[in-house]
Amino acid sequence: MKLNQPHRIVALVLSLLACAWLGAAQAAEHKDKGPKLNDHAALAGMHEAKALFLIDVNNPDKVMHVVKVIGITRKQLEAQGVKPHLLVVFVGPDVAFLTKDRRGIGYMDERPVATIQREIEGLAHTGVEFQACGVAMKGMDVSPRDLIPAVKPVGNGFISAIGYEAKGYSLVPVY
Description:
Number of strands: 5
Mean pLDDT: 86
Order of helices and strands: HHEHEHEHEHE
Number of domains: 2
Low-confidence stretches: 7-26
Oligomer: single chain
Distance between the termini: 70 Å
Protein name: Sulfur reduction protein DsrE
Organism: Acidihalobacter aeolianus
Radius of gyration: 25 Å
Shape: globular
CATH class of the largest domain: Alpha Beta
Largest sheet: 5 strands, parallel
Keywords: Signal
Structural class: alpha/beta
InterPro entries: DsrEFH-like
Strand order of the largest sheet: 4-3-2-1-5
Signal peptide: 1-27
Number of helices: 6
């Protein structure tokens, strides 16, 4: 089909408008992302970072989210040239989310608890250490042998936090 002059002009204008619209959409998409975020100011001069996450949330969805963010934090530290030394200490009822048989875990909490445990197992392979407070375990009727393999039982999570802070670990409380 051969286009006459007015149709050619309309087709050209429509094509130019489409190109302009696509270009504006791409520019807006790029602009919305903003500059690439980093932590250079906070990490200036650091070659390694030691952090202790003290977790007492008693909500498996929130614990699942926090454990995932700890994994993200590890990756971001490494990406910015800082070697992470991360320790996660569970105190309070959260220790129940760390058991092999998941005894006492309700049906609606099964999926997030399973995800917590998978994330912990994966992070443990990257060097992140996990501990469960013995005082909390006693209160929740959890035996050390009930814990998933990646989690080490300790006598008292608060004492663990005190000791590791004295060794230069920064406390990151998650309540």
